[in-house]
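User: Before I run my own analysis I want an independent prediction to cross-check against. Here's the chain; please return only the structure tokens and, at the end, one sentence I can use as a sanity check.
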Amino acid sequence: MGSPAEALLDVVIPARNEAGRLAHGLATLSGRLDRLAVSSSILVVDNASTDTTADIARRWSGPVPVRVLRCPRPGKGAAVRTGLLATTAPYVGFCDADMATDVAVLDDVLALLGAGTQVVVGSRRHPGSSVEIYGHPLRRLGAVAFNRLSRGLIGDLGDTQCGFKFFAGPLARAAAAELRTTGFAFDVELLLHCQRLGARVCEIPVVWRDVPGSTFSVSRHAGSCLRDLVRIRAAARRTPVTASPMIPVADELAAG
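Assistant: Structure tokens:
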């Protein structure tokens, strides 16, 4: 529905070696976006993949326009930053290629954004969420540990790491421009920047299931996540969150 230039909603999919899951993810997301009452587009960010991820995205033909961007620097944070900065729509967001979060909740997301909420994030810890427990015990342990270590950085937010986040476009682009964390802990820094820009983070319940094939590995990535959290926390102490005017989305909507 619509073209990327006129889309009201841009959705970024960071994808590193996702050849095995991307086609299903694009079919799921584009099918849901096509049923929304607004025009939309998808941006697949090929994050230094060594498989056919980019080819699959380029060949994709569906009801929603798909663009492919190249991010040569490995890291989910780097890919999301590249994607958000390339958006132009008044509303933007990102979700994982595996579509672990049920995209049926997009109607609620758009309603909240349309009502003026500037940050809407899926939360697996929300009491209304339906969550399939992690299949691998180490991933479950890692998720609990990360949540405890990041607690207090962004108020009382229950889940910083769910790969399903949506924003007012101007806010997302401003926050992404300041993002320096390239790895999996980037969500924490991104949300901190949103708060510094005056936005309130709204957590919503989701239906989430653990999908095999995640590129996150506790053994390979836990150390870098911990180092990033330490750095983010130190930066937050130097520059505490203070109330500041929110970036208005009304001007972009009027211009469009």
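Sanity check: The radius of gyration is 17 Å.
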